[in-house]
Each structure stands twice: as structure tokens, then as C-alpha cells.
Design goal:
The chain folds into 2 domains: 252 residues, Class I glutamine amidotransferase (GATase) domain (Rossmann fold, 3-Layer(aba) Sandwich), CATH 3.40.50; 53 residues, no CATH class. Helices cover 32% and strands 26% of the residues. It has 11 helices and 19 strands. The strands form 3 sheets. Strands 8, 9, 12, 13, 14, 16, 17, 18 and 19 form a 9-stranded mixed beta sheet that branches. Helix 4 packs parallel to helix 6. The protein is globular. It starts with a helix and ends with a strand.
Length: 366
């Protein structure tokens, strides 16, 4: 009898262990591993010229961190794919003549695409339409073989870089198009320009920010704020042309790479007053400047100071001898030392210093 009870108890223990193992397995399926615990993103705002030394040198340095660089150019976003292949291949080889380069196009079959990414140390997305990228590699937020290969690239410490559309697709949510006025709900809607921000699923490489491209050149601060507000996200990074920021996925640290600056936007204290958005914070990100996105999200920044009374300095859309496309950048530059205003066709931005390198700003209809 004692022997029988022992055998029953032993069998019961085995069953318990088997059940625990099964439950553990089911739990791990229900809660998959994080998307990546290593790797780097290079977010380039667009208009990347062949002489952008800081950007190309950083890409090549990251790509060769664990052995010889092998870079894959991905042209899914681009209309004239062969033109972009020739352009980016020539640019990379002007900085590293012997670098190995592969190309994946929209029509490249899945097996060949996965093989190229699995052999790569870096992936460079070209510009065009960011929705072409998600349609090809992450339709309906599905974990396609190509997308999983990109995750593996990051997990082994590789780099994913993107220009223009390749910038816009980086986050969990991405901007699909449109201008600031319509995104803010200002103006008359049309079939091509409905009111409200146009936001959809991105490639999901970075969890902390929404990324935007051609930022200063196309006055996109309004649409980024509207996208953050509508999606419930707190941080955005707007990157101008020929500008680049680096995001280390292991640490969550964002670093400025290029001489051209980017803008980190934080809507922690945003207040809505009809179509106006008030109390937004921002910080210009210059070369070498570092910001921990993780630490910023884990804390609440001080509320911005009240907007100074009186008329702010007008930032002209065109300064003598300067490019009109730099007006939005000049607004945030000048606001570091005193209140400034940029008035555009349907809306305006008023910005002022908020201390510790931060800038506060409001967006209003005109």
C-alpha cells in the first residue's frame, strides 16, 4: 500500500511538472519576446546628399561594428527604384569603395529578401511613400518573414536606416501624409486633404516616438503635434532634410548625428482650446546631443512657463539671403532666447524659452 501511494504521489508530481511546463509554454506564446533588445536606428529626414559625411560615416561605422559591413538597400517606398539604387549605391561607395551592397526591391521574392537581410549588417530604406513599405513588409501589422528578418537584424546588433519615407515608417504609429493646417483641423477639407492627422500603423522598430521627415522644410510641427495628440503618444522627433538622429534600442538614447538639427516634441502638458494646442514642449537636437527617451517617458517634465505677455518677435518666412525652408527651424532657434512667432497661411506657432534648453510653444489658427 505504501509503495502504491508513493507511485501515485510520484505520478502526481510528474503531472504537475508537465502541466506547469505546458502553462509556461502557453504563457511565452501569449507574451512574445520584446521586438529587439539591441541594434540601432538612423533616422534621416530626407534630401540626403552624397556629401553628408556625418550620416554616411556613422552608417558605415555601425554597419562594420561586428565585422565587414554588408549593406542592403531597400527601395520599396520609391517610385523610380533603379534611379534610387544607382544614387545610394554611388553615395555609399564614394565613402567606402569596397563595401558590399545588396538590393531588395518591392518585387524581390520573400525568400531572396529574407536571405539578403539575414546576411546584412545594415538595411537602408530609401524615400518615397512610407505606406508602400508597410504594405510590402508589414501589411495589417502582420509578422511577415521579411519583418521578422528585420527584427533579427536589430537583435544581432545591426542597424536600420531610413531616409524620408524610411524615416516616417520607424514607429509603432506613422504619419501617412498631409500638412499641418489640415492635421490641426484648420481650413477647408477636401478629398485629398481631409481634416485631422493621417496616422496609421508603422513598422514598429521604435516604441518611444513618432518620427517625421522633411520637418522644418515643410513646416510639419503642427501635424506632428496633432498626430501625437490623436494617437495618445507623448514624444515625437521631427528630422529635417540632410539631418539625422540615432536611436540606440538597447538604452533608448537618442543622439544627434548631423550638423543639421532635429526637434524633439513632448506633449506631456498639451492643452486643447478649440483648434489651438497650447503648452507643448520641444528641444532642438544638435550633433552629439543625447536624450534618454526612456528616462523622459518615465518622468514628468516641469510644466512650461506661461507665455510672455506682449507681441513676440516675428520670424519672417524669408530672411534676406536665407532659404524660406528654414523658417520653422529659425523659430525654435530664436525662441531659446525670447518669445518668437512664425505666421503661416492658416496657422501660426508662438514659441518661448522654458528653461534648461527646453522651448515651449502654442499652435493657433490665424
Amino acid at each position: 500500500m505504501i509503495d502504491l501511494l508513493s507511485r501515485l504521489r510520484f505520478g502526481s508530481n510528474l503531472f504537475a511538472l508537465a502541466l506547469a511546463s505546458l502553462l509556461s509554454s502557453c504563457s511565452s506564446l501569449a507574451a512574445p519576446e520584446p521586438a529587439h533588445s539591441a541594434g540601432t536606428l538612423l533616422v534621416v529626414g530626407g534630401g540626403l546628399e552624397d556629401d553628408a559625411r556625418a550620416v554616411y560615416e556613422r552608417l558605415l561605422t555601425l554597419a562594420s561594428a561586428h565585422g565587414p559591413a554588408r549593406i542592403v538597400i531597400a527601395t520599396a517606398a520609391t517610385g523610380e527604384q533603379e534611379v534610387e539604387v544607382a544614387d545610394k549605391t554611388g553615395a555609399l561607395r564614394s565613402w567606402a569603395p569596397d563595401v558590399q551592397i545588396d538590393v531588395i526591391r518591392r518585387e524581390t521574392p520573400t525568400d531572396a529578401t529574407v536571405a539578403a537581410i539575414d546576411a546584412a549588417s545594415a538595411l537602408l530604406f530609401t524615400g518615397g511613400d512610407q505606406q508602400r513599405i508597410t504594405d510590402r513588409y508589414r501589411p495589417g501589422e502582420r509578422e511577415t518573414p521579411e519583418w521578422l528578418a528585420m527584427r533579427r537584424l536589430l537583435a544581432r546588433g545591426g542597424v536600420i536606416a531610413g531616409c524620408s519615407a524610411g524615416d516616417a515608417m520607424m514607429g509603432q504609429r506613422m504619419l501617412l501624409g498631409g500638412g499641418s493646417a489640415t492635421a490641426l483641423g484648420i481650413g477647408t477639407p477636401s478629398a485629398d486633404a481631409p481634416l485631422g492627422p493621417r496616422v496609421g500603423p508603422g513598422m514598429g522598430f521604435v516604441p518611444w516616438v513618432i518620427t517625421d521627415s522633411h520637418f522644418f522644410e515643410r513646416d510639419r510641427v503642427g501635424r506632428l503635434v496633432a498626430a501625437l495628440e490623436s494617437s495618445g503618444r507623448r514624444l515625437g522627433i521631427g528630422v529635417g532634410e540632410d539631418a539625422c538622429v540615432e536611436i540606440d534600442l538597447a538604452s533608448g538614447v537618442l543622439t544627434g548625428v548631423s550638423p543639421s538639427e532635429a526637434l524633439l516634441v513632448d506633449v506631456a502638458h498639451l492643452e486643447r482650446a478649440d483648434l489651438a494646442r497650447r503648452g507643448v514642449l520641444a528641444r532642438l537636437i544638435g550633433p552629439g546631443e543625447r536624450v534618454s527617451l526612456v528616462q523622459r517617458l518615465e518622468s514628468q517634465p516641469p510644466a512650461p512657463p506661461a507665455r510672455p505677455a506682449g507681441a513676440p518677435r516675428e520670424v519672417p518666412v524669408v530672411e534676406p539671403g536665407q532659404n524660406r525652408q528654414l523658417a520653422s527651424w529659425r523659430l525654435f532657434r530664436e525662441a531659446r532666447t525670447g518669445p518668437a512667432q512664425l505666421a503661416l497661411e492658416d496657422w501660426r506657432a508662438i514659441a518661448w524659452p522654458a528653461g534648461d534648453g527646453e522651448i515651449a510653444f502654442d499652435l493657433e489658427p490665424r
